[in-house]
Structure formats: C-alpha cells, structure tokens
Q: What sequence folds into this?
C-alpha cells in the first residue's frame, strides 16, 4: 500500500528488477554494437562499391551515424509513451523492434549481389535500429531507479548500465568467434542472426517483473499527462540540453575509443584490429564490476564527484591514449583501449541513470531523461566519421584533441548541474517533486 496514495502497488525486489533491466539492455546493446564493429571492419567493402579503403570506412561510418541520428526520435516516442503507458510496455516493444531489425541485417544481400539496393536497405534497417535503441535506455533505468530505495538509487541505477559493456563484450566476442570458426559472409552475418536467441531470452526475463511503482501510482492518481514529452521540452529544455552536454565525454569518447579505433589501427597500419577488440573486451569485462563500484560510491560521496573522475580523465588521457596505440605494441593497444573505457567512460555512465532521473518529476521523467540521453546521439553518432576525417586531414592529433574537447564540454556542464544524491543533500531535496500543479 502506498502511503502517499493509499493505492496498493506491487513492487518487486530492486535487485530482481535491475537485473531484468540489465539483461534487456545487454541484448539491445549487443544488437547496436555489432553494427558498429561490422561498420569498422566489414561494411566498407561489403555494401559500398569503392576501391579506396578510407572512403569505404567513411561510408560505413556514415550509415552508423544514421542510427544515432534517429535515436532522439526513439527517445521521444519512448519518453512520451513511457509516461503515458508505462515503463515496462516500452521496454518490451523496444526489444522487439531492435531484434527484428538486427536479424534482418544478417540476411541482407550485398552490393555485389543487388547493387545500390543493398546500402539502401542497410540504411533503412539502421534507422529502425536507432529508433529501437533510443527507446530502450529511459525505461530500463527508470524501472531500476524507481524500484530502488532513495539512498541506493546510485547502485541499483548502475546495474542496467552494465548491460552496455556486457552487450559490447558479447558483440566483440561474437565477431572474434565467428572470425575463428566461419568463412566468407558468414563471419559478419552470424553475429546478427544470433540476436534472435538473445531477444527471446530478454523478453522472457522482462515479462516477469512488475511495472514501476511510480508509474502505477501516477496512473491510480490520474496524474498521466496528455503530452509529457512536449511539456518537458517546453518547460525543462535547459535541463535536457545540460544532459546532452554531460553525456558527450561518455558517449562520444566511447565511440572514438571503440569504433573509430578499430579503423584507425588499420588505416595507420599500426596493428591488427583484433587487438583493439581484445582491449575493448578487457575494458568491458572490467566494466561489469566498475559500474557497480562507481554507482555505490555515488550514493556515498555524490553523483558529481564520481562523474568528474571520468570527465577530467577524458581531458587528460586523449594524447596519452593515442601515443600508447601509436607504438603498435599489442599490450600497449590493449591497455590504452581498456583504460579509456574503465576511467573515462565508466564513472560517468554509472551515475547517469540516477543523476539524470533525479533532475525530473515522475510525471515527465521518462520523457526528460530519454530526450536528454538520446539528444547526445546527434553528436556522438557523427564522431567516428568526424574522427576518421580529422585523421585523414591532420593525422592522429586531430582525433586525440577531439577526445579531449569532449571531456572539457562535459566537465563544464557538470559544474553547473546540481548534486542530487540523498547522502549529500538530504532525502527531501534529492527527491524531485512528484507531480506538476496542473495537467496538460
């Protein structure tokens, strides 16, 4: 029984809900990231008719960027319907949409088979992937955060975030395995086709958890708004823009460190791309634990100090990361990529779910965090393309400085974002107002 509403609501164990959210996020992340790996390593020659290696990579990264450009649309739809129909409903549909698009990529004809139709179909499916992935994050983290006790939102909110490194680990592992066991087009097709199994597992697990107690209370109290996404855009657009800039070091740096680096070591003839994949897998494996540690730490010392660990490290590590990779030594490449993920990405990503959720009241929370989170994709999706173009223009220093600038922008945004952790500001101040005075 909810003390505030007098309405009986079912509330699952926070650990169970967080785990279910994490599994689904891992599946969707796998689907999204195998495309990034395939774009860097295969699609330049499979879907684009060009003799120039750099041009093929740029073309495949352009299709990668298209998915990012449509993630805000997915975030808008998920936010709107997540605040109207429920967080769980959106989680189920986003997983289905993402899975269908991913499996279809695995059966696409190549340029050599059907000509220009091949890249057109690839782009259309990438658009669907972008919408599906954009719809995923907000619902997943809100299920975890809204089921969690106030003073443990950082920890439980970090559990779904593990789905990102888990998905990347699975994606790169799938490609390493397929390269070792398969030949020809099956090397890149098999990881996409395997998605159907993972989607089935994710749906089964997510069906077994209860709806968010906050949304259940909203529905019982007739607090559902007609146009929550439009309202939060109109009233809280500054907070949404702040979230966009906060994310740049994490999401932009992530794709520079992973997708761009796969093509960079090949273009610069430094080492085999498999060494970048191994480094990514090492960093992702470490991330399975580091996210929980950083999330728990944010419950004790605050969201902002933990966030700054990552954003400041991004500034400091840009040039050293490329110097390590430029040695071409296998161990140096692995260390550089793993460190980039562990200390640049993980501290930021671990606190985003709780910190961002605490910026909005519950009746527009799904819309607010989904729009802010996916708005950063408009920039992040262009970064592998931009980093590759910078490398072609001025060499490795271009993408290195780009990496550092992302850290500068996010650090500046963090300085103007209020702390929300209950341990630092008190439970009452840390909990945003639950409703607005007037419904739309």
A:
């Amino acid at each position: 029984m909810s003390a505030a509403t007098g309405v009986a609501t079912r509330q699952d164990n926070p650990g169970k809900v967080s785990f279910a959210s994490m599994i689904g996020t891992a599946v969707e992340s796998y689907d999204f990231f195998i495309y990034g790996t395939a774009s860097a390593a295969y699609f330049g020659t499979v879907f684009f008719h060009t003799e120039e290696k750099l041009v093929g990579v740029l073309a495949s990264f352009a299709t990668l960027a298209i998915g990012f450009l449509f993630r805000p649309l997915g975030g808008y739809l998920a936010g709107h319907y997540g605040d109207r129909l429920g967080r769980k409903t959106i989680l189920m549909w986003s997983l289905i949409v993402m899975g269908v698009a991913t499996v279809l990529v695995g059966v696409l004809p190549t340029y050599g088979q059907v000509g220009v139709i091949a890249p057109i179909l690839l782009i259309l499916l990438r658009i669907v992937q972008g919408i599906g992935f954009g719809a995923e994050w907000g619902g997943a983290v809100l299920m975890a955060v809204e089921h969690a006790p106030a003073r443990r939102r950082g920890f439980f909110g970090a559990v779904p975030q593990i789905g990102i490194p888990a998905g990347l680990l699975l994606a790169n592992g799938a490609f390493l395995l397929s390269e070792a066991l398969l030949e020809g087009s099956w090397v890149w097709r098999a990881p996409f086709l395997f998605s159907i199994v993972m989607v089935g597992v994710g749906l089964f697990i997510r069906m077994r958890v209860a709806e968010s107690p906050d949304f259940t209370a909203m529905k019982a109290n007739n607090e559902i708004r007609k146009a929550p996404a439009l309202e939060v855009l109109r009233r809280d657009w500054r907070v949404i823009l702040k979230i966009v800039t906060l994310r740049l070091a994490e999401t932009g740096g992530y794709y520079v460190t992973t997708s761009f680096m796969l093509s960079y070591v090949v273009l610069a003839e430094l080492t085999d791309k498999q060494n970048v994949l191994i480094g990514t897998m090492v960093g992702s494996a470490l991330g399975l634990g580091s996210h929980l540690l950083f999330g728990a730490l944010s419950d004790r010392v605050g969201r902002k100090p933990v966030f700054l660990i990552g954003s400041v490290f991004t500034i400091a590590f840009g040039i050293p990361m490329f110097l390590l990779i430029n040695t071409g030594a296998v161990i140096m490449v692995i260390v550089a990529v793993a460190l980039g993920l562990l200390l640049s990405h993980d501290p930021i990503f671990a606190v985003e779910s709780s910190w961002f959720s605490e910026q909005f009241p519950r009746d527009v929370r799904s819309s607010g965090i989904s729009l802010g989170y996916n708005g950063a994709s408009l920039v992040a999706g262009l970064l592998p393309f931009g980093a590759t173009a910078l490398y072609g223009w001025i060499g490795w220093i271009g993408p290195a400085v780009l990496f550092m600038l992302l850290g500068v922008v996010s650090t500046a945004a963090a300085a103007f974002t209020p702390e929300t952790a209950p341990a630092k500001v008190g439970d009452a101040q840390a909990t945003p107002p639950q409703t607005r005075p007037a419904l739309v």
About this structure: The two ends are 28 Å apart (CA to CA).
